[in-house]
Design goal:
mainly alpha; two-stranded antiparallel sheet; 8 helices; 4 strands
Length: about 250
Amino acid sequence: MDHAAFGWLTPVLSYVMACTGAALGLRCTVRALGATGRSRRNWLITAASAIGTGIWTMHFVAMLGFSVSGTEIRYDVPLTVLSLLVAMIVVCAGVFAVGYGRDRARALLLGGLTTGLGVASMHYLGMAAVRLHGDVTYDPMRVALSVVIAVVAATAALWAALNIKSPVAVTVASLVMGVAVSSMHYTGMFAVRVQVTPSGEVLPGATAMQFVFPLAVGLGSYLFLTSAFVALSPTAGEREASASAQRPVESAAH
């Protein structure tokens, strides 16, 4: 097996995707905690979609570099799409637990556990979508370790969303989150064992370039465009500061 068939390109690009999703999700969660009503709900949904999309894109960009000697690799399309939906739905549940929880500590633990298990489920559903000539097995200890890393990483990210407000601190937190998500992915991949059975049969499903690459590029573009929107939209505090600055000017004019 080779986990980086294109060299450092796929690990680095997947890390960038993980960091982008984490940074956007954290910023949206910070905005949500300062909002109420429908606005809070919308910010939380955006945060969940960003984190889920970022993690899924990270996983499959990294999978573009996964190869096994003696067999081609294809992906079951419905299972791959399901892994994306699971990532978004479960992360959404975790983010909403934090966004609406009255007891911060309890909400953080519940949200971190839910989100972490969602990340791990997405990863192993994505691996279940892999089709190759042979049998795939897993080292149980490394699988368990990858799940623990996912839960700890998710809890740390949600804690950062609750306690870190400045853009610089959010950037640092997202870089750390990117390391944690990448570590979870590659720990899970190092748990994989493949027994190749050479065959001339055509494998079902789509190749990575036929399906995963276009979808990953599309979701990556969504992340960057949404990041630009969030970065350019002022926070409630910034709007208040701007309004306060304009009042003296208006008073002087009168």
